[in-house]
Amino acid sequence: MVKNTDNAQRILDYINGALIYYGIIHTDEMLDIVRQNLQVQLDRKEFDKIIAEALKDDNHDYYFSRSRQFLYNTGIEDPADVLNEQSLRPNIDYKNLTEKEALDALNLELSNRRDRYTNKIMNFLMSKGWSDDKAASALLDMELDLNNGAQQINLIKGFLKEVDFTSEKELNQFMNMISDFFNNTPQWILKGWTPSEIHSRFEKSSLKPLKDEPSVLTQKQLDPEKPTTAEHAAASVYAEETESSPSLQEWSALYDAAIRFKAMQCWEWMFEDEIFGVRNPETGEIAYVSIMGTLGQVYALYAYRGAEGLQSLSKPCLWPINVVTIMTF
């Protein structure tokens, strides 16, 4: 049993921070996680009492609430939709958070900071004349909108309108930062994991490495600037006509990458409006990639080339320009 108010406060603070990661969770599952990570003896009745006491004051300082058998972050717009998305990923458990991680998430939330990916974008925006508060508020809003299911391309549009990019190179650099931000932001539908963590922990182990080459993830961890085999293969597919034809080795690498892509089944947890960027290691051009297949009709990977290709994504009535089908099944 919880013996003092200090433990009760620990429990509430942990829930408050954890729900920044989870969005929504069944009370029984939250209780199990609290028991495990706070090492407290706590039954369901007392757990409910602690939560009820904290939430009965309308002026409480918590970012969570309760409805029936669920605890949820008050920033959530459609709890049923998030729950449904979580249920589609039964092989993924809620991310196990230490007490420090939960409290850090809460403190970072309060100061509009999360990690180095956030800070990179903030530094860039402030170099463009944005105030610290404006940049922080924009990223906090983008993170909340992302978790509430907003289309990534729509989140990017606001920056394209407000930021005066001096060159395509600068735009590509910014898009790399945004891509890193999306890939490393804990998502409610992924039960608190980031897309990068999902790939590394739940999918990478089931994939076979490319023959005679390091895996894409390992190679990038060792040297992020060094082109990977998959990037070389992708670059060869949408190379300019004036360039030489791909070699047999490059075609082989592309086929291996296609096999890996099919095995990952990204369409089971990504929608076609969730756009991310891939840099051509030879030209520096960014291809904005869309995964298709959530409807079970066509399984494919599309790449929209450069700033022009990115802008075409915001024009749904027109067929996208500078788009290349990299893989189709």
What does this entry look like structurally?
This protein has helices at 5-22, 27-38, 44-55, 79-87, 99-110, 116-127, 132-147, 152-162, 168-183, 195-203, 216-222, 229-237, 248-264, 306-312, and strands at 24-26, 64-67, 70-73, 276-279, 286-292, 300-305, 323-328. With 329 residues, the chain is α+β, with helices and mostly antiparallel strands. The chain has a four-stranded antiparallel sheet with strand order 4-5-6-7. A three-stranded antiparallel sheet has the order 1-3-2, sandwiched between helices. The longest helix has 18 residues, at 5-22. 29% of the residues are buried.
Helix/sheet category:
alpha+beta
* Helix count from the secondary structure assignment: 14
> What's the overall average pLDDT, rounded?
77
Kindly state the percentage of residues in helix: 40-55%
Please provide the ordered H/E string of secondary-structure elements.
HEHHEEHHHHHHHHHHEEEHE
Strand content: 5-15%
Brief summary of the model shown:
The protein has 329 residues and is of the alpha+beta class. Helix content is 51%, strand content 10%. Helix 1 packs across helix 5, helix 6 crosses helix 7 and helix 12 crosses helix 13 (248-264).
Describe the SSE topology.
Blueprint: H1 5-22, E1 24-26, H2 27-38, H3 44-55, E2 64-67, E3 70-73, H4 79-87, H5 99-110, H6 116-127, H7 132-147, H8 152-162, H9 168-183, H10 195-203, H11 216-222, H12 229-237, H13 248-264, E4 276-279, E5 286-292, E6 300-305, H14 306-312, E7 323-328
Antiparallel strand pairs: 1-3, 2-3, 4-5, 5-6, 6-7
Helix pairs in contact: 1-5, 6-7, 6-9, 12-13
